[in-house]
Amino acid sequence: MSDTPVTLSDFQGQPALHLRAPDGAQATVLLHGAHLVSWIPAGGEEQLYLSPTAKYGLGASVRGGVPVIFPQFNERGPLPRHGLVRTRAWQAVESVRRAGAAIGVLRFTDDIATRVHWKQGFEAELTVVVGGNTLEIELAVTNTGETAFEFTAALHTYLRCNELLRAQLEGLQGCAYEDFLLKADGQQWGDVLTFVGAIDRIYHGAAQPLVLRELGRRVRVAMDGFEDVVVWNPGDDGVQQLSDMPDEDWRHMLCVEAALIRQPARLAPGEDWAGMQTLSV
Protein backbone atom coordinates (compact mmCIF):
# COMPACT_ATOMS: atom_id res chain seq x y z
CA MET A 1 0.00 0.00 0.00
CA SER A 2 1.18 3.50 -0.79
CA ASP A 3 2.31 5.74 2.06
CA THR A 4 1.20 8.79 0.09
CA PRO A 5 -1.83 10.50 1.67
CA VAL A 6 -5.00 10.09 -0.36
CA THR A 7 -6.27 13.39 -1.75
CA LEU A 8 -10.04 13.66 -1.93
CA SER A 9 -12.17 15.79 -4.22
CA ASP A 10 -15.79 16.93 -3.98
CA PHE A 11 -18.70 15.45 -5.92
CA GLN A 12 -22.20 16.81 -5.31
CA GLY A 13 -21.06 17.97 -1.88
CA GLN A 14 -19.70 14.53 -0.99
CA PRO A 15 -16.07 13.50 -0.44
CA ALA A 16 -14.88 11.44 -3.40
CA LEU A 17 -11.80 9.76 -4.78
CA HIS A 18 -11.08 11.04 -8.29
CA LEU A 19 -8.81 8.81 -10.36
CA ARG A 20 -7.09 10.01 -13.52
CA ALA A 21 -4.76 7.79 -15.55
CA PRO A 22 -1.83 9.23 -17.52
CA ASP A 23 -3.80 8.81 -20.76
CA GLY A 24 -6.73 10.85 -19.40
CA ALA A 25 -9.09 8.01 -18.46
CA GLN A 26 -11.02 8.96 -15.33
CA ALA A 27 -13.22 7.51 -12.61
CA THR A 28 -14.86 9.02 -9.54
CA VAL A 29 -15.80 7.04 -6.42
CA LEU A 30 -17.76 8.46 -3.50
CA LEU A 31 -16.63 7.52 -0.01
CA HIS A 32 -20.37 7.19 0.64
CA GLY A 33 -20.94 3.52 -0.11
CA ALA A 34 -17.72 3.23 -2.19
CA HIS A 35 -20.12 4.24 -4.93
CA LEU A 36 -18.57 4.66 -8.38
CA VAL A 37 -20.41 7.54 -10.02
CA SER A 38 -18.38 8.23 -13.19
CA TRP A 39 -16.23 6.44 -15.73
CA ILE A 40 -14.79 8.24 -18.74
CA PRO A 41 -12.40 6.20 -20.92
CA ALA A 42 -9.36 7.88 -22.46
CA GLY A 43 -10.57 10.21 -25.20
CA GLY A 44 -14.12 9.07 -24.65
CA GLU A 45 -17.33 10.12 -22.93
CA GLU A 46 -19.26 9.12 -19.83
CA GLN A 47 -20.24 5.44 -19.86
CA LEU A 48 -22.30 5.21 -16.66
CA TYR A 49 -25.80 6.48 -16.04
CA LEU A 50 -26.25 8.75 -13.03
CA SER A 51 -29.66 10.24 -12.35
CA PRO A 52 -29.69 14.05 -12.43
CA THR A 53 -32.11 13.90 -9.48
CA ALA A 54 -30.11 11.39 -7.44
CA LYS A 55 -30.06 11.91 -3.68
CA TYR A 56 -26.81 12.26 -1.75
CA GLY A 57 -25.81 12.32 1.88
CA LEU A 58 -26.38 10.40 5.07
CA GLY A 59 -28.54 7.34 4.54
CA ALA A 60 -29.15 8.05 0.84
CA SER A 61 -28.91 5.39 -1.89
CA VAL A 62 -27.50 7.13 -4.96
CA ARG A 63 -29.44 6.31 -8.13
CA GLY A 64 -26.98 5.29 -10.84
CA GLY A 65 -23.30 4.56 -11.14
CA VAL A 66 -22.22 1.33 -9.43
CA PRO A 67 -23.72 0.71 -5.97
CA VAL A 68 -22.01 -1.99 -3.90
CA ILE A 69 -24.44 -4.65 -2.65
CA PHE A 70 -23.30 -6.73 0.36
CA PRO A 71 -24.05 -8.97 2.28
CA GLN A 72 -27.59 -9.38 0.96
CA PHE A 73 -29.04 -8.84 -2.49
CA ASN A 74 -32.38 -7.00 -2.61
CA GLU A 75 -34.84 -8.42 -0.07
CA ARG A 76 -33.63 -12.02 -0.31
CA GLY A 77 -33.00 -12.37 3.42
CA PRO A 78 -33.62 -10.71 6.80
CA LEU A 79 -31.24 -7.76 6.39
CA PRO A 80 -32.05 -4.28 5.02
CA ARG A 81 -32.64 -4.22 1.27
CA HIS A 82 -29.38 -4.55 -0.68
CA GLY A 83 -27.35 -5.00 2.48
CA LEU A 84 -25.33 -2.87 4.85
CA VAL A 85 -22.56 -0.99 3.03
CA ARG A 86 -24.03 1.08 0.20
CA THR A 87 -25.21 3.93 2.43
CA ARG A 88 -22.27 4.04 4.85
CA ALA A 89 -18.95 5.87 4.83
CA TRP A 90 -15.94 3.95 3.53
CA GLN A 91 -12.29 4.90 3.98
CA ALA A 92 -10.08 5.71 1.01
CA VAL A 93 -6.83 3.84 1.72
CA GLU A 94 -4.91 4.11 -1.56
CA SER A 95 -4.74 6.22 -4.72
CA VAL A 96 -1.80 5.63 -7.05
CA ARG A 97 -0.74 5.53 -10.68
CA ARG A 98 0.87 2.29 -11.75
CA ALA A 99 1.60 0.69 -15.14
CA GLY A 100 -0.32 3.39 -16.99
CA ALA A 101 -3.46 3.07 -14.88
CA ALA A 102 -4.96 4.92 -11.92
CA ILE A 103 -5.84 2.73 -8.96
CA GLY A 104 -8.02 3.52 -5.97
CA VAL A 105 -8.82 1.33 -2.96
CA LEU A 106 -11.61 1.92 -0.45
CA ARG A 107 -12.27 -0.13 2.67
CA PHE A 108 -15.17 -0.73 5.04
CA THR A 109 -14.90 -2.59 8.34
CA ASP A 110 -17.87 -3.82 10.34
CA ASP A 111 -18.94 -1.52 13.15
CA ILE A 112 -21.61 -1.11 15.80
CA ALA A 113 -24.17 -0.01 13.20
CA THR A 114 -23.70 -3.09 11.00
CA ARG A 115 -23.62 -5.47 13.97
CA VAL A 116 -27.10 -4.29 14.97
CA HIS A 117 -28.32 -6.09 11.83
CA TRP A 118 -25.61 -8.71 11.28
CA LYS A 119 -23.36 -9.93 14.06
CA GLN A 120 -20.43 -10.80 11.82
CA GLY A 121 -16.92 -9.44 11.66
CA PHE A 122 -15.92 -8.56 8.12
CA GLU A 123 -13.82 -6.26 6.00
CA ALA A 124 -14.80 -5.21 2.47
CA GLU A 125 -12.49 -3.59 -0.05
CA LEU A 126 -13.37 -2.05 -3.39
CA THR A 127 -10.50 -1.64 -5.85
CA VAL A 128 -11.04 0.49 -8.96
CA VAL A 129 -8.52 0.45 -11.82
CA VAL A 130 -9.00 2.82 -14.75
CA GLY A 131 -6.88 3.33 -17.84
CA GLY A 132 -7.27 3.34 -21.60
CA ASN A 133 -10.68 1.99 -22.58
CA THR A 134 -11.07 -0.27 -19.54
CA LEU A 135 -12.47 -0.06 -16.03
CA GLU A 136 -11.94 -2.84 -13.47
CA ILE A 137 -13.98 -3.00 -10.26
CA GLU A 138 -13.06 -5.63 -7.69
CA LEU A 139 -15.01 -6.33 -4.52
CA ALA A 140 -13.10 -8.34 -1.90
CA VAL A 141 -14.54 -9.62 1.39
CA THR A 142 -12.67 -11.06 4.38
CA ASN A 143 -14.19 -12.84 7.36
CA THR A 144 -12.48 -11.16 10.33
CA GLY A 145 -14.79 -12.72 12.93
CA GLU A 146 -14.85 -15.97 14.83
CA THR A 147 -17.75 -17.69 13.06
CA ALA A 148 -18.39 -18.64 9.44
CA PHE A 149 -20.92 -16.66 7.43
CA GLU A 150 -22.65 -16.70 4.05
CA PHE A 151 -23.37 -13.67 1.89
CA THR A 152 -24.62 -12.54 -1.47
CA ALA A 153 -23.25 -9.54 -3.35
CA ALA A 154 -23.49 -7.48 -6.52
CA LEU A 155 -21.98 -4.56 -8.38
CA HIS A 156 -25.24 -2.86 -9.38
CA THR A 157 -23.86 -1.27 -12.57
CA TYR A 158 -25.99 1.32 -14.39
CA LEU A 159 -24.77 1.57 -17.99
CA ARG A 160 -25.69 4.65 -20.00
CA CYS A 161 -27.75 4.16 -23.16
CA ASN A 162 -28.47 6.65 -25.90
CA GLU A 163 -31.79 4.91 -26.58
CA LEU A 164 -32.62 1.66 -24.79
CA LEU A 165 -35.34 0.77 -27.31
CA ARG A 166 -32.63 0.45 -29.97
CA ALA A 167 -30.05 -1.29 -27.79
CA GLN A 168 -29.33 -4.99 -27.45
CA LEU A 169 -27.49 -7.12 -24.92
CA GLU A 170 -25.56 -10.09 -26.27
CA GLY A 171 -24.02 -13.09 -24.53
CA LEU A 172 -26.79 -14.61 -22.41
CA GLN A 173 -27.86 -17.35 -24.79
CA GLY A 174 -28.69 -20.59 -23.01
CA CYS A 175 -28.79 -19.04 -19.54
CA ALA A 176 -31.63 -19.88 -17.17
CA TYR A 177 -33.19 -16.89 -15.44
CA GLU A 178 -35.60 -15.82 -12.74
CA ASP A 179 -38.08 -13.23 -14.01
CA PHE A 180 -39.43 -11.15 -11.13
CA LEU A 181 -41.97 -9.27 -13.23
CA LEU A 182 -43.58 -12.43 -14.60
CA LYS A 183 -42.87 -14.34 -11.35
CA ALA A 184 -41.62 -17.26 -13.42
CA ASP A 185 -38.43 -18.99 -14.47
CA GLY A 186 -37.26 -19.08 -18.07
CA GLN A 187 -34.35 -19.65 -20.40
CA GLN A 188 -32.72 -17.24 -22.82
CA TRP A 189 -32.91 -18.92 -26.22
CA GLY A 190 -31.63 -16.20 -28.53
CA ASP A 191 -28.26 -14.53 -28.17
CA VAL A 192 -29.70 -11.02 -28.55
CA LEU A 193 -31.81 -9.52 -25.76
CA THR A 194 -33.79 -6.44 -26.79
CA PHE A 195 -35.90 -4.11 -24.67
CA VAL A 196 -39.39 -2.69 -24.97
CA GLY A 197 -39.93 -1.71 -21.34
CA ALA A 198 -39.41 -2.98 -17.82
CA ILE A 199 -37.15 -5.96 -17.18
CA ASP A 200 -36.06 -7.54 -13.88
CA ARG A 201 -34.19 -10.82 -14.26
CA ILE A 202 -31.39 -12.76 -12.62
CA TYR A 203 -29.49 -14.84 -15.18
CA HIS A 204 -27.49 -17.81 -13.90
CA GLY A 205 -24.22 -19.16 -15.21
CA ALA A 206 -23.29 -16.58 -17.84
CA ALA A 207 -19.90 -17.97 -18.84
CA GLN A 208 -18.95 -15.48 -21.54
CA PRO A 209 -18.49 -11.71 -21.71
CA LEU A 210 -21.61 -9.71 -22.47
CA VAL A 211 -21.85 -6.85 -24.95
CA LEU A 212 -24.27 -3.95 -24.70
CA ARG A 213 -24.52 -2.69 -28.24
CA GLU A 214 -26.20 0.30 -29.85
CA LEU A 215 -25.53 2.31 -32.99
CA GLY A 216 -21.94 3.56 -32.88
CA ARG A 217 -21.24 2.24 -29.39
CA ARG A 218 -20.52 -1.00 -27.59
CA VAL A 219 -19.65 -1.81 -23.97
CA ARG A 220 -18.13 -5.18 -23.11
CA VAL A 221 -18.93 -6.59 -19.66
CA ALA A 222 -16.77 -9.41 -18.27
CA MET A 223 -16.97 -11.01 -14.82
CA ASP A 224 -14.78 -13.15 -12.62
CA GLY A 225 -16.00 -14.64 -9.35
CA PHE A 226 -19.59 -13.57 -9.94
CA GLU A 227 -21.84 -16.42 -11.09
CA ASP A 228 -25.00 -14.42 -11.88
CA VAL A 229 -26.02 -11.40 -13.95
CA VAL A 230 -28.88 -9.10 -13.07
CA VAL A 231 -30.53 -7.22 -15.93
CA TRP A 232 -32.84 -4.46 -14.73
CA ASN A 233 -34.72 -1.46 -16.03
CA PRO A 234 -37.85 0.04 -14.40
CA GLY A 235 -39.63 0.79 -17.67
CA ASP A 236 -42.15 3.55 -18.25
CA ASP A 237 -44.47 2.50 -15.43
CA GLY A 238 -41.85 1.58 -12.88
CA VAL A 239 -39.81 4.76 -13.25
CA GLN A 240 -42.80 6.81 -12.15
CA GLN A 241 -42.51 5.13 -8.76
CA LEU A 242 -38.92 6.36 -8.38
CA SER A 243 -38.64 9.81 -6.86
CA ASP A 244 -34.94 10.09 -7.70
CA MET A 245 -35.08 9.46 -11.46
CA PRO A 246 -36.73 11.54 -14.23
CA ASP A 247 -39.62 9.75 -15.92
CA GLU A 248 -37.97 9.75 -19.36
CA ASP A 249 -34.61 8.42 -18.16
CA TRP A 250 -35.61 4.75 -18.18
CA ARG A 251 -34.78 4.90 -21.88
CA HIS A 252 -31.22 6.03 -21.19
CA MET A 253 -29.95 3.32 -18.84
CA LEU A 254 -29.69 -0.41 -18.34
CA CYS A 255 -28.41 -2.19 -15.26
CA VAL A 256 -26.11 -5.10 -16.12
CA GLU A 257 -24.93 -6.28 -12.74
CA ALA A 258 -22.19 -8.72 -11.81
CA ALA A 259 -23.82 -10.69 -9.00
CA LEU A 260 -23.50 -13.62 -6.64
CA ILE A 261 -27.06 -14.55 -5.67
CA ARG A 262 -28.22 -18.10 -6.37
CA GLN A 263 -25.32 -19.76 -4.54
CA PRO A 264 -24.12 -17.57 -1.64
CA ALA A 265 -20.43 -17.49 -0.80
CA ARG A 266 -19.42 -19.05 2.52
CA LEU A 267 -16.35 -17.84 4.39
CA ALA A 268 -14.78 -19.46 7.42
CA PRO A 269 -12.92 -17.22 9.87
CA GLY A 270 -9.88 -15.75 8.14
CA GLU A 271 -11.01 -16.69 4.63
CA ASP A 272 -11.61 -14.20 1.85
CA TRP A 273 -13.46 -13.94 -1.45
CA ALA A 274 -13.12 -11.61 -4.44
CA GLY A 275 -15.18 -10.89 -7.53
CA MET A 276 -14.42 -8.57 -10.42
CA GLN A 277 -16.38 -6.81 -13.14
CA THR A 278 -14.43 -5.44 -16.12
CA LEU A 279 -15.99 -2.90 -18.47
CA SER A 280 -14.40 -1.92 -21.76
CA VAL A 281 -15.40 0.09 -24.81
Commentary on this structure:
Belongs to the glucose-6-phosphate 1-epimerase family. Its EC number is 5.1.3.15. It is an enzyme of class 5 (isomerase). This protein is mainly beta and 281 residues long. It has one domain: Distorted Sandwich (Beta-galactosidase, Chain A, domain 5). It is 4% helix and 47% strand. The chain has 2 helices and 21 strands. It has a 9-stranded antiparallel β-sheet with strand order 6-7-8-9-21-18-17-12-15, with no helix packed on it. Strands 5, 10, 11, 13, 14, 16, 19 and 20 form an 8-stranded antiparallel β-sheet that branches. Strand 13 and strand 14 form a beta hairpin. The mean pLDDT is 95.
Largest sheet: 9 strands, antiparallel
CATH architecture: Distorted Sandwich
Q: How many strand units?
A: 21
Computed CA radius of gyration, to the nearest angstrom: 18 Å
CATH topology description: Beta-galactosidase, Chain A, domain 5
Question: How would you name the oligomeric state of the polypeptide chains in this document?
Answer: single chain
Please report the first level of CATH classification, the CATH class: Mainly Beta
Sequence of secondary-structure elements: EEEEEEEHEEEEEEEEEEEEHEE
Summing up helix and strand content along with how strands pair, one would put the structural category as mainly beta
Quote the distance from N terminus to C terminus: 29 Å
The percent range for helix content is: under 10%
Overall outline: globular
How many distinct helices?
2
